Amino acid sequence: MTSARFTINIAGLTKAYGKRTVLDVDSLTLESGHSYALVGPNGCGKSTLIKVLSGVEPMTAGRVDVGGSATREDLAVGYMPQRSYAFGFSVFRNVAMALHDSGKPRDEINRRVREALEAVGMADMADSRGSGLSGGEAQRVALARMLVQDLDVLLLDEPTASMDIAGTTLVEGALAAYRRRTGCLMLTATHAPSQARRISDRAVMLAEGRVVEFGDTATALSYPTSKAGQEFLSYWAV
Ligand SMILES: Nc1ncnc2c1ncn2[C@@H]1O[C@H](COP(=O)(O)OP(=O)(O)O)[C@@H](O)[C@H]1O
Ligand SMILES: [Mg+2]
């Protein structure tokens, strides 16, 4: 974990599956200290961008560099995939495993795990088996696995997609508290502009793999300048 200010600079980034290019991000800079929402319709490339940034998918072309007063090696990056998994052993261990190589003393690990499970409303299920969890519960456990760590960059792919309103509200609060505590850069994919407004101060909107809106969340989502942005948001207008 670093206290340095940094930027993540994306340039000429493309990702193709076979002959089809699904991501084409010419230029995008993410700055430490901000919470970014990654919005856009199904299939626009949100998960692909997050996978490439996390390193689980190689890019086809382009660069992702870290600038400012940190290097890539300084940054602790956490990635929560769109499909959450929980291992068969206990919920507690599912979360504690994130700290196995941290060198932290057992007391501290136990305290952090309890706090993270509390934050996502899963403290009562600490002893339950991971294999029996519902989709929403597995998603909460996957999130707790992130929140026990001190991360500089948190990449979340539709973290509340399987949750009901109560769960979503709780988790959004937990993420805000985590950000206040750690100051991490957060990038959260969501297909809901309403959630983007609640959890982010900046928004990146994708359409067919390209960035079509970028900036202050309220402005980008209230006054989209692109045709694709206007069309996407028109579905959400009340
Ligand atoms: N492993 C893959 N192989 C082939 N096509 C893929 C693969 N993963 C995603 N795609 C395609 O890439 C496009 C972007 O997908 P994705 O990034 O998952 O979109 P989003 O997360 O915004 O819904 C979609 O058209 C999807 O079908
Ligand atoms: Mg997705």
Characterization of the model:
This protein has helices at residues 46-54, 91-96, 106-119, 135-147, 165-182, 193-199, 217-222, 227-234; strands at residues 6-17, 20-31, 35-39, 61-68, 77-80, 153-157, 185-189, 202-207, 210-216. With 238 residues, it is α/β, with parallel strands linked by helices. The chain has a domain at 1-76 and 153-162 and 184-238: P-loop containing nucleotide triphosphate hydrolases (Rossmann fold, 3-Layer(aba) Sandwich). A six-stranded mixed beta sheet has the order 5-6-7-3-8-9, with helices on both faces. Helix 3 packs across helix 4 (135-147) and helix 4 (135-147) packs parallel to helix 5. The longest helix has 18 residues, at 165-182. The N and C termini lie far apart (42 Å). The model has no long low-confidence stretch (mean pLDDT 95). Magnesium ion is lined by residues 46-47, 82, 157-158, 189.
